[in-house]
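In response to the reviewer comment on reproducibility (Comment 2.3), we provide here a single inverse folding case reported in full, input and output, so that an independent group could reproduce the run without further information from us. The C-alpha cells appear first.
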C-alpha cells in the first residue's frame, strides 16, 4: 500500500512517471485524451491521490496503485496488486489479480479472493496464492485454501472449510458444516450442529470433528479422533487408529474397532459390533445382531440379543447366552452358563462345567454331563442321557432312551463282534427299571454246567439201567432134597433193560449158597451178587 494517500501532483509525477496529470485535480493515465482529460480510468473526485498506469479509484481516501488495479469506496480501500480489485472501507488487495470485497477484507496473494466485511475490523482474509475466503471473519491462509462461511477457517495446506465456524486446520483436510473441524492431514469432517436436547436450538460445539490423519467425520456431531478413523452418522464417535463407526450415535473407541448401526459400540481392540445397540467390549470380540453383546476376549455373539460373556465364548442365535470361559451356545434361547459348557438347540441348557446339551430342551446340569436328544436330561456328575426324553440322575449313570423304546443291535451277534472280545465273558442282566449289569458267571460257566448236567443225565440213565439189572437178578431156591438150582431173569425200568443169570448150591439141609451176574443192555455194564441163606 502506498505510504501517502494524496501526494501533491509534483510528487505524483516523480513517483508515477507513466501517468498524465491535469489541472483541477483530474488525473488520468497515459491512455487518456489530453485535450479533455477523459480516460477509461478517470479519477472523478478531487483529492490527493497517486496512480500507476491503468489504475482507477472512485472514492476519497482510496488507493489503486497497481497496473489496471481498481479501488472503490470511502474509507481507505487499497488495490496495490496488478489487476487487483478492492471494494469497501479498509479493504486491501495487495496481491496480483486479487479481489477484496467488504470492509476490512484482505486478499494478500496472487489470485486471492476475500469477500466479506466486519464492522469490528475482522473482514474476510485470504492470505496466500489462490486462496479464497468468503464470509465475515473467514480465514484462508495457505496456498490453495478455501474458507466459506462466517468465521470459517481453512488454515492447513490445501484445506477447505465450509460452514459457520467450520475449521480445516490439517493439511489437505475438509470441514463442511457448522462447527465442523478437520484438524489432521487428510481429515474430512462433514456435518453441522444438531439439536440433541430437542429445544429447537442447535447445540453449541456439536459440529463434525475429524482430528487425525486421514480421519473422516460425516454427520451432525460426528467425531473421528485418531489416524485413519471414520465416523459416519449423527453423533457417531471413533477414537482409535483405524476405527470405524457408522450409524447414529455409534461408537468405535479402540484401535481398529468397527461399529455399524444405531448405538452400536465397539470398545475392544479389533472388535466388531453390527446392529442396533450391538456391543463388542473386549479385544477381538464380535457382536452381530440388534442388542447383541460380546464381552470377553475373542467372544462371538450372533443374533438378536445374543450374549457372549467371557473369553473365547460363542453365542449364536436369538437370545442365546454363553457365559463362562470357552462356553458355546447355538440355537434360539440356548444357554451355556459354565466353563466350557456346550449347548446346541432351541432352549438347550448346559450349566455344568464341561457339560454338553444337544437337542431341543436338552439339559446337562451335572459336571461333565451329556444329554443328547430332545428333552434329554443329565443332572448328575459324569452322567449321560442319550435319546429323546432320556434321563440320567445318578453320578456316572449312562441312560439310553426311555421306557417306550425298543433296542436293536444288528452287529452284536456278528463274528467280528465275537472276535473283538477277549478273556472271559459274562452275561448282561437287567432289573425292572432297566438298570443293566453283568453277572458273575458267563458262557464258560454255562458250558461247564452243561457238561455236569450231561454227566448227571448219564448217571441217571445208568441208574435206570442199574435198577433194571437189580430187578433181573434174583437168588434161586434149592429144595432140601436137591443140591443145585439155576435161574435167569429180565429186568426193565425207565426205558432200560437188563438180563441176569444166577446159580445156587445147598450144602446141607439148613445152608444154601447162591451167586448171579446181570448185564445192562444199554451201557453193557455188568453186575453180580453172592449170597448165603441159612434156615432152620
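Designed residues, in position order:
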Amino acid at each position: 500500500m502506498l505510504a501517502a494517500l494524496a501526494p501533491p501532483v509534483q510528487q505524483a509525477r516523480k513517483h508515477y512517471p507513466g501517468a498524465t496529470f491535469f489541472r483541477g485535480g483530474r488525473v488520468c493515465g497515459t491512455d487518456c485524451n489530453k485535450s479533455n482529460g477523459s480516460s477509461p480510468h478517470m479519477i472523478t473526485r478531487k483529492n490527493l491521490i497517486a496512480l500507476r498506469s491503468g489504475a482507477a479509484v472512485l472514492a476519497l481516501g482510496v488507493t489503486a496503485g497497481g497496473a489496471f488495479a481498481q479501488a472503490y469506496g470511502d474509507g481507505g480501500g487499497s488495490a496495490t496488486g496488478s489487476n487487483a480489485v478492492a471494494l469497501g472501507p479498509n479493504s486491501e488487495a495487495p496481491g496480483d489479480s486479487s479481489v477484496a470485497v467488504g470492509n476490512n477484507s484482505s486478499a494478500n496473494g496472487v489470485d486471492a479472493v476475500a469477500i466479506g466485511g466486519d464492522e469490528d475490523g475482522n473482514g474476510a482474509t485470504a492470505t496466500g496464492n489462490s486462496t479464497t475466503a468468503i464470509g465475515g471473519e473467514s480465514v484462508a491462509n495457505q496456498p490453495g485454501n478455501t474458507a466459506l462461511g462466517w468465521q470459517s477457517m481453512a488454515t492447513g495446506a490445501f484445506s477447505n472449510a465450509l460452514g459457520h465456524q467450520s475449521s480445516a486446520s490439517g493439511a489437505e483436510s475438509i470441514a463442511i458444516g457448522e462447527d465442523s473441524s478437520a484438524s489432521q492431514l487428510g481429515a474430512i469432517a462433514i456435518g453441522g450442529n444438531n439439536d440433541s436436547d430437542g429445544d429447537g436450538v442447535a447445540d453449541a460445539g456439536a459440529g463434525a470433528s475429524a482430528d487425525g490423519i486421514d480421519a473422516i467425520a460425516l454427520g451432525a456431531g460426528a467425531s473421528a479422533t485418531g489416524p485413519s478413523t471414520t465416523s459416519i452418522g449423527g453423533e457417531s464417535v471413533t477414537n482409535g487408529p483405524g476405527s470405524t463407526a457408522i450409524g447414529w450415535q455409534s461408537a468405535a473407541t479402540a484401535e481398529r474397532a468397527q461399529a455399524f448401526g444405531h448405538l452400536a459400540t465397539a470398545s475392544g481392540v479389533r472388535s466388531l459390533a453390527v446392529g442396533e445397540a450391538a456391543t463388542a467390549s473386549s479385544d477381538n470380540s464380535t457382536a452381530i445382531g440388534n442388542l447383541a453383546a460380546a464381552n470377553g476376549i475373542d467372544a462371538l455373539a450372533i443374533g438378536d440379543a445374543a450374549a457372549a460373556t467371557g473369553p473365547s465364548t460363542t453365542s449364536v442365535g436369538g437370545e442365546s447366552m454363553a457365559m463362562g470361559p470357552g462356553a458355546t451356545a447355538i440355537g434360539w434361547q440356548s444357554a451355556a452358563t459354565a466353563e466350557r459348557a456346550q449347548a446346541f438347540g432351541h432352549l438347550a441348557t448346559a450349566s455344568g462345567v464341561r457339560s454338553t446339551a444337544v437337542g431341543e430342551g436338552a439339559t446337562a446340569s451335572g459336571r461333565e454331563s451329556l444329554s443328547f436328544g430332545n428333552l434329554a436330561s443329565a443332572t448328575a456328575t459324569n452322567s449321560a442321557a442319550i435319546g429323546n426324553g432320556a434321563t440320567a440322575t445318578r453320578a456316572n449313570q449312562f441312560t439310553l432312551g426311555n421306557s417306550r423304546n425298543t433296542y436293536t443291535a444288528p452287529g452284536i451277534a456278528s463274528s467280528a463282534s465275537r472276535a473283538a472280545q477277549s478273556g472271559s465273558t459274562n452275561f448282561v442282566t437287567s432289573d425292572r427299571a432297566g438298570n443293566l449289569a453283568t453277572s458273575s458267571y458267563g458262557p464258560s460257566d454255562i458250558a461247564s454246567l452243561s457238561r455236569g448236567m450231561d454227566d448227571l443225565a448219564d448217571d441217571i440213565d445208568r441208574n435206570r439201567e442199574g435198577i433194571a439189572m437189580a430187578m433181573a437178578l434174583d437168588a434161586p431156591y434149592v429144595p432140601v432134597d436137591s443140591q443145585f438150582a439155576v435161574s435167569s431173569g429180565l429186568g426193565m425200568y425207565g426205558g432200560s433193560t437188563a438180563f441176569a443169570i444166577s446159580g445156587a448150591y445147598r450144602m446141607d439141609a439148613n445152608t444154601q449158597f447162591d451167586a448171579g451176574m446181570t448185564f445192562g443192555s444199554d451201557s453193557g455194564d455188568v453186575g453180580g451178587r453172592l449170597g448165603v441163606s441159612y434156615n432152620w
